[in-house]
Write a structure and sequence with these properties.
The chain is of the alpha+beta class and 270 residues long. The chain is built from nine helices and eight strands. β2 and β3 form a beta hairpin. It starts with 14 loop residues before the first helix and ends with a helix.
């Protein structure tokens, strides 16, 4: 009998990180952002009120990569948990493909994750993880409400982009390609969710209560790993830019110093 995993710390956010995440999904300004704050990446843009730039646009300090890797590692754990062999960023998966007699070299392309025999057949599954921000602004123009409110609007654009880039190459190599696309609010593209259910989570027999619990556990863990890294990316990047981390590192600004000193302050006042 498979053992139901315990709840780990990855399912929770500390109160401060939770506030960053809540402001993000409600499209509220981030509490620690200062007006006119500029990012330290190459283009040095003014940081938007919601700090979406840190999640999808900033290449510096690898915070966006942490989000990506957090989800990839959880997907690998899932594949291993259901008895499938999986590998992160394998080399040599895509061979040279001949198109109209011309060699299209794909040797340097690496999928985020490959799950061997992921469909229960001899076909291996490759996954590519990405996220997109459903902001109600396109360029410098505010989108009409009926357009901005369309569910999965930007996730669908990203999904189709990944399909165009990898699908034909994967198919030519006898691979099944699955884009795993998240919106920064935490919503997964419905096709991504369907593929996970069909090709990996289907290993759990959901006719039994244990199988349903395990399936829900892993879907929750994938979602939490994404949202946890999103919140921490905003929190850590803001504090890096505003020197909040340095300030908190000063002993006199830490809670333990304030608490230990409160009694002596009261004695002094008396």
């Amino acid at each position: 009998m498979k053992r139901i995993p315990e709840m780990f710390s990855s399912f929770s956010l500390d109160p401060k990180a939770y506030r960053f995440h809540l402001n993000l999904i409600l499209y509220l300004p981030q509490p620690e952002r200062t007006e006119g704050l500029r990012c330290d990446c190459k283009k040095k843009p003014t940081v938007d009120n919601n700090c979406f730039h840190f999640i999808t646009g900033c290449p510096k300090s690898a915070f966006g990569m942490n989000i990506h890797n957090g989800v990839c590692n959880t997907l690998k754990e899932l594949a291993n948990a259901v008895g499938l062999r999986a590998k992160r960023e394998p080399f040599g998966v895509f061979r040279d493909i001949f198109v109209d007699g011309i060699t299209d070299t794909q040797q340097n392309m690496r999928p985020d994750l490959i799950v061997y025999n992921g469909m229960g057949t001899r076909v291996d599954v490759v996954l590519d993880v990405s996220n997109a921000t459903p902001v109600p602004i396109f360029g410098n123009q505010i989108l009409p409400i009926d357009v901005a409110k369309v569910p999965n609007r930007v996730a669908e654009l990203r999904y189709q982009e990944k399909e165009r880039k990898y699908h034909d190459t994967a198919t030519a190599n006898n691979l099944k390609f699955i884009p795993i696309v998240f919106e920064t609010t935490g919503r997964m593209h419905p096709n991504s969710l369907k593929h996970l259910n069909d090709h990996i989570l289907s290993k759990y027999d959901t006719h039994y209560q244990e199988g349903k619990l395990l399936k829900n556990f892993w879907l929750s863990k994938i979602s939490c790993s994404f949202q946890h890294q999103v919140a921490m990316s905003i929190k850590n990047k803001l504090r890096m830019l505003t020197a909040g981390g340095f300030s908190y590192g000063t002993y006199e600004n830490r809670e333990d110093f304030i608490n230990s000193s409160s009694s002596s302050f009261s004695v002094h006042r008396s």
